[in-house]
Amino acid sequence: MEYTTLGSTGMEVSRLCLGCMSFGTSEWRDWVLDEEESREVIERAIDLGINFFDTANMYSMGESERVLGTVLDDYDRDSQVVATKGYFQMDEDDPNSGGLSRKAIEQELSNSLERLGMDTVDLYQIHRWDYDTPIEQTLRALDDAVRRGQARYVGASSMWAHQFADSLRTSEREGLERFETMQNHYNLLYREEEREMLPLCDKENVGVMPWSPLARGYLTRPHEQVEETVRGETDDHAREHPYYEGNGYEVNERVQELADEYDASMAQIALAWVLDKEWVDAPIIGTSSLDHLEEAVAALEIDLSESDVEWLEEPYEPVRVSGHE
Ligand SMILES: NC(=O)c1ccc[n+]([C@@H]2O[C@H](COP(=O)([O-])OP(=O)(O)OC[C@H]3O[C@@H](n4cnc5c(N)ncnc54)[C@H](OP(=O)(O)O)[C@@H]3O)[C@@H](O)[C@H]2O)c1
């Protein structure tokens, strides 16, 4: 496994972060693994040297955090880097179980820690921007959480670059913990982040950990077969994303062609492309299969030539913003 320093945290993480949205309970989404199968994938990831895990309170409505915490409890907690997130409403009858008010953050972070069975999470991220709470209040609540020892670092996820820049300036001005990481939507078929967000992260030395690096499976098989898996058929979220726009079919076909040339899978080529981007620290991979996990780790060995990178990128045209509002 390769390791890298996450932004300016000084913390070393594996170049692949294991996304835990696929773990928890199939009662939440048909394609999510239940506890025992989730355990197998998480344990194999640790065997392969992965030390970086991303979950969220809303994945399987808390079950993802509980399962991850239970598995990691059998290992040396100090050697793992655990990230979770809050923002989405956890109880439909309780509006304060979502958002980024001080009340929501304090309650939801405590609930996450309890499910994870941990006193401290390494990275606590805001899952989305809260238009109803001033960012200064959110940052103060997060700063207090760090002072209390409940989180080591704080991070953010999909938002506009101007909002992220505002957050960073507010932290600097008020002497508060700043967002050390950006978890954004980025893959060969969604490159809008290259305009503003990624150069901003680069300039500020913010760690970048993109989500859905394989476009939720769209980049792992020929486009005609995308709906042939349970997730491909039922993941409404994937359909809302503009993967078919911006010449998505042609990009998908070029990934197929390069996979043949490199004697690799399409997933490996798509992942090698993300890993080739200097502003990326660790893509968050989502898999429910041991074989796919092993393929992802093997993709670290693939070195795409500059001309192949250009060829893969060439057909892309701008698409609708996807991942935030
Ligand atoms: N911050 C946010 O708003 C946000 C949003 C979405 C996701 N995330 C994070 O990002 C993580 C990854 O997201 P994602 O699951 O959408 O990621 P992804 O890696 O883009 O897509 C995962 C899909 O690709 C398939 N796949 C992976 N490797 C494959 C291979 N070698 N061959 C064929 N199919 C393969 C998986 O199928 P199998 O299960 O069969 O392997 C799964 O259906 C999540 O777990 C979560 O932690 C964050």
UniProtKB/TrEMBL annotation:
Instruction: Say yes or no: keyword Hydrolase present.
Output: no
Listed transmembrane segments: none
Decide whether keyword Membrane is in the record: no
Gene3D superfamilies reported in the protein's UniProt record:
NADP-dependent oxidoreductase domain
Q: Which UniProt keywords apply?
A: Oxidoreductase
Q: What is the lineage of its organism?
A: Archaea, Methanobacteriati, Methanobacteriota, Stenosarchaea group, Halobacteria
CDD domains to which the protein is assigned, alphabetical: AKR_EcYajO-like
Gene Ontology molecular function terms on file: oxidoreductase activity
Biased composition (Basic and acidic residues) is annotated at: 224-243
Q: What is this protein called?
A: Aldo/keto reductase
- Domain NADP-dependent oxidoreductase stretches: 15-314
Q: Which InterPro entries match?
A: AKR, AKR_Detox_Biosynth, NAD(P)_OxRdtase_dom_sf, NADP_OxRdtase_dom
Under the cellular component aspect of Gene Ontology, which terms does the record hold? cytosol
Instruction: Provide the species name.
Output: Haloarcula mannanilytica
